[in-house]
Amino acid sequence: WHDGEPLTSSDIEFSWRQTISLEVRSDKRRQASRIKDITPVDPRTFTIRLEQPHATWRVSPNFELIPRHRFEPGLSGDPTLRTSTYFQKLHHAPVGSGPFRFVAWDDDEIRLAPNPDYEADGLRPTFAGLRILWLNSPQAQLDAFCAGERDLVELTFEQYRTQIYTGAFEQAGREARRPSSQYHYIGWNCSGDEPRLADPRIRQALAMAIDIDRIKAQVTNNLAAACFGPWAPDSPFTAPKVRRFAYRPQLAAPILRGENSADKAQGDPAEEPLNIRLVINGELAADVQIADIVRDCLEDVGVHVTIVTAANRAEYIERLKEGRFDAYLGAVTPGIAPELHTTEFMTGGKVNFGGYSNAEVDRLFATAETVTDETERITIFRRMRQILYDEQPRTYLYHEPELWGVSHRLSGVEFSNRGPYYFQPGVIQWWADGNAEN
């Protein structure tokens, strides 16, 4: 650990028990709960026993490690690990075990220093210091990069289109563009105030009424890739050939007016037009643009759209949890295994905000829990992907690329489909010309 104490198998066992505790907030609880027991054998060896075989068992121990000698003294007084003064102080001066140790945390900056005891595959951190800084707008971030005050900056679509060839940018650094598995989507409330959204035919018609190519052109400057379902595009669980709902408003309009309904008898009065409350996070400029295009497209086929702009992410999430929406704009990065998305698509899933329910999807998820043959798993999840695309609980918009500016003095930066950070060796293989201080 960064305080010099050894990291042992006892820390692993303690961290697992806190992860599965119902008192502790953890998004890793479901996966970690598949472990029946973790037993230390000696300080550097432990045994994991599972409740039952499952193909993605390697995901189950993927929980955060916490130092037992720091957390255990406060556990009896605060089993949540977060509300007491003891844990508040601990969380504001965290002790980890990775390549960089905590130095200080101000309102808009975290400062880290290399951990001299860390080594992975022969690599050690090369920086004397690492600063993570917050600026309140993308333009302020780009200005700081061009002024030589930042070494790495994430770019918006508009910045990438208009700024990377300016003299200031080219003097400061270089651009980096890589594919990403993150996708943007429209989530439909299948169990809310508008009962017609529970009908897959209506959701399919809404998908055909939305000009996704226009969204890609106007919002992403055609930098984004098409999205055909919830799994990563390069995943074996994504079938190589998929059927897409093309932009066909002339076919969508009569369905949305109820003219093609099997339940509608001749001479019945026309249905009331669909009225949709589309919830967005107003902090995200791209979502504001997407919402305007979606409204234009749906108004053209007789669907009235009211854009509800949440002031911040907290208000946005609160609306989704309470079901106060008919549709919402969201984005998600697929996990390494489709099983990680049960909370999104299974009946009653924790973040299945739209209340989508399909018995076959539930059965396929349950079957996949114990199937270890990769060929059979591919068959299961390709079938599930087809259902989740055909029934359109989400209308899949695009995969957003990674767009970055990297300073000339920074070398060794590589990218995965989740950006420059979330993989090994990642940051520890970077170096700065002149052995820069930060």
Describe, in plain words, how this protein is organized in 3D:
The protein has 438 residues and is α+β, with helices and mostly antiparallel strands. Strands 9-13-8-12-10-11 form a 6-stranded mixed sheet. Strands 3-4-5 form a 3-stranded antiparallel sheet, with no helix packed on it. A 3-stranded antiparallel sheet has the order 6-14-7.
Main pleated sheet = 6 strands, mixed
Gap between N and C termini: 23 Å
Unreliable spans:
none
CATH superfamily of the largest domain: Dipeptide-binding Protein, Domain 3
Task: Find the count of extended strands (DSSP E, 2+ residues).
Answer: 16
Averaged pLDDT: 92
Please give the domain count.
3
Strand order of the largest sheet: 9-13-8-12-10-11
Task: Figure out the total of helices.
Answer: 15
Key descriptive features of the protein:
438 residues; alpha+beta; Dipeptide-binding Protein, domain 1; D-Maltodextrin-Binding Protein, domain 2; Dipeptide-binding Protein, domain 3; six-stranded mixed beta sheet; three-stranded antiparallel beta sheet; 31% helix
Write the layout of secondary structure elements.
Layout: H1 9-20, H2 29-32, E1 35-42, E2 45-50, H3 68-75, H4 85-91, E3 100-105, E4 109-114, E5 130-133, H5 138-146, E6 152-154, H6 157-162, H7 167-172, E7 173-178, E8 183-188, H8 200-209, H9 212-220, E9 225-226, H10 249-256, E10 275-281, H11 285-300, E11 304-310, H12 313-322, E12 327-332, H13 342-345, H14 359-368, H15 374-390, E13 394-399, E14 402-407, E15 410-411, E16 431-432
Parallel strand pairs: 10-11, 10-12
Antiparallel strand pairs: 1-2, 3-4, 4-5, 6-14, 7-14, 8-12, 8-13, 9-13, 15-16
Helix pairs in contact: 8-10, 9-11, 14-15
